[in-house]
Design a protein that fits this description.
2 copies of one chain form a homodimer.
Chain A lengths: L10 H11 L1 H7 L1 E5 L1 H9 L4 E7 H11 L8 E5 L1 H7 L8 E6 L13 E6 L4 H14 L3 E5 L7 H6 L9 E4 L2 H10 L3 E5 L6 E2 L9 E5 L8 H6 L2 E4 L11 H13 L1
Chain lengths: 260, 260
């Protein structure tokens, strides 16, 4: 370890910090950042395109052997000082394991028989988006569509997925029209999740064949016109005293019913 | 509004800050704090014992009329300067609405026919605890038992409940023995939620009569001996590639199945 990087002016370190802070930079470079042993290990294991692996001296001693077993032919590995690690870390108790990763190229969705999908429409909380992706992975949801939602590649969203971002099929769609076109061509029945006691209850509506459920914004739900464009409106029966589950929890219950 | 409090040495302000920062102080005084228009409104509406209502000058102008309609005979109302509000606020964009509230006296649980309960055993993340209480309220869970978990009355847990802390029956139990005694005397069947493919699947195990499901710690789950003390072990069937939902999400799905 002769070449321990200590300068915050190092171009990779500067790139890491720009990508960490700014969606614009992530879009421009087509790159995003990872922090933490588990998510970096997941990225390497799932063959995500890791362009740079950045380890503090301490992290290299602890986990270097384990991490360097991955196929790193296309990855540059940098060892940095612990001080520099603390500087670029997002938490005060960093493990000193960082990576820069390429945003995967957009793929066309492949719809399977009985495929079950979730559509995140206008979600703004990266923690919610991450938790929904993690849950989708655990429950075996076949794909996630995102439209008008927060940046999937922000550090907080990525961290909240707990690595599921590398396992789930995620499609970021530019417009509502494109979204409905893709789902219609795929022969997918669409259900809007709404808070409306007149909507079909998810306990009785039945989910057969290819199904996609739309989840709306945390505060406002789905726009009425988007809900009306879906084939049907469905609702989670709730207790009389309150009228709203957290968006991630509602999505979790809907995905559970979709996949059961 | 002649008496606007501006001093951080004001005894109520000092008490507020102590209660906000320290579980020990909350226990000693039997009081906890609330911040935000919605949760303070919920507390007043649900007749929680609000000892002090604290509003900034600006909050008084915006929401004073609305908030002062509540029954405040046993509540002291203080108006403070906006600067002092910013000082005691936990967020940089505070609404300037605060309260001090008495921890409700412990009650013995009343078990209803087909009562459905959740037991939080060793949960440490106040955000998870709050989200579970919110979800329990939405889904109509009849009571929540807490044993060896984080402080229900920390600002973060309280905030995450979104007011459901004032609507749900919550029982904080001092020991595992007491917990099992109470549930056994109540004729409640106990199920331990575990990650174990040999456990009974929640999709087929059936929940009949009085039922309580135990949820364990975020990282470690339930201790094996606690799981074995339960009448049965149940599990959420999951996708092969990962083995863990977030604790709050797992609790949400379990409560959904309990109440469906």
């Amino acid at each position: 370890m002769d070449n321990i990087i200590t300068s915050k002016e190092n171009p990779v370190i500067k790139l890491y910090q720009k990508l960490s802070a700014s969606k614009k930079e992530r879009l421009q470079y087509g790159l995003f950042v990872l922090e933490g042993l588990r998510i970096v290990s997941d990225a390497l294991q799932e063959n995500a395109e890791v362009t740079h692996l950045i380890l503090t001296k301490q992290a290299m001693e602890h986990w270097g052997e384990e991490l360097l077993q991955a196929d790193l032919r296309d990855t540059k590995t940098l060892v940095i000082s612990n001080e520099l690690g603390n500087r670029i870390a997002s938490t005060s108790t960093t493990q000193g394991v960082f990576a820069i990763c390429r945003v995967p190229a957009a793929k066309a969705p492949v719809f399977t028989d009985n495929g079950r999908y979730i559509v995140l429409y206008g979600l703004q909380d990266p923690g919610n988006v991450g938790m929904i992706i993690r849950t989708a992975d655990a429950l075996g949801i076949d794909g996630i569509f995102m439209c008008g939602s927060c940046d999937l590649y922000s550090p907080k969203a990525i961290r909240s997925t707990m690595g599921s971002v590398f396992r789930e099929s995620i499609f970021v769609v530019g417009s509502e029209d494109e979204l409905f076109d893709v789902l219609k061509c795929g022969g997918v029945e669409t259900s809007a999740a709404v808070i409306d006691t007149d909507a079909e209850k998810i306990t009785t509506c039945g989910f057969n064949g290819r199904q996609a459920v739309f989840i709306g914004n945390e505060g406002n739900g789905l726009p009425a016109e988007t809900a009306l464009r879906c084939d049907r409106r469905v609702t989670i029966p709730m207790n009389g005293t309150i009228n709203s589950l957290n968006a991630a929890m509602a999505a979790g219950i809907l995905m559970w019913e979709l996949k059961k």
